[in-house]
Design brief:
single chain, 342 residues, alpha/beta, Inosine-uridine Nucleoside N-ribohydrolase, Chain A, 15 helices, 44% helix, disordered N terminus
Amino acid sequence: MRLFARLVSFWPTFCCAAIAAMIYGGESAPMGRQAMAASAPAQEMVIIDTDIGDDFDDASAIGLALSSSELKIVGITTAWGDTVLRARLLDRLLCDTGRADIPVAVGIAKHGPGQAIFSQARWAARQPAKAYPAAVDFVLEQIRRRPGEITLIGMAPLTNLAALIERDPATFKQLKRIVIMAGSIHRGYGDGYAAERRPDAEYNIAMDMSAARQVFGSGVPLYVMPLDATQHRLDELKRQRLFTESTNLTDDLSLLYLQWAEGFRQQTPTLYDAVAVAYAIDPTLCPASPMRIEVDDQGFTRPTSGTANSFVCLSSDSGRFFNFFMPRLIQQRLAGSCAKSP
């Protein structure tokens, strides 16, 4: 009897909902649609600045961004060295994965001492050349359209970012935040098992120290993922699981990996740059603390006393990172929309 009474009391509400559904074509009411729209999480608007084509980690970071619905990629800009060939590489990757809608812009073709080799040049060169917009013009235009909304993810020497500051510092300050893979605070390259940890002059800082100083002094909220927190190695078992999935994305990544392995004579890549993308999606993966950083004349990022100019992550859990990274790339099904390059 108690159950029957509850059903009777519920009946008027059920009838109203059913009538509303018939009137509004299967939806309960306009207010219901508004409530559903309000509850949907907003996408984070990002522009990615990358020197893709040398190491493997840039490609893996772009793959993570493409596989993450939390991000709306406003555009991707190329940095450092042969920025046009890097743009062609991005074009091929975006075409193969059905994301040719993402604009690609060419950054400043600056070179420096100790520059890495373009290991994936053969793969990039198969994509036909075309005209690209200039990265500085493109980024400033996007910031003006969406002031306070865009996160700039830097995964390269900071040359393009410094050029933005020099061209229009007021517009640059309208970025929501900057997330960069850069620097070395206590831990250098590959010293995870060393008894005494020492920092290194990290590549993205050392290649353009003047640019790095400008970015650290820009006043835009700056989140730094240094070597201390980004040395997550894609070991053989993870590579096998990822590359045998045979989606458009993982097939491209497997070829880019092979050219990197041949060019650098290495087998296990370190996914430095993917941590910056992961942080932009979920900051709990690499908790950052306020810190004042100065860039010295040797390219070291030295923590000093004084007012913080950045938030720095000094540690991230590798197991948790890969539990975040691997399923996204494996489960995503990105269908190609362009003809495959020959």
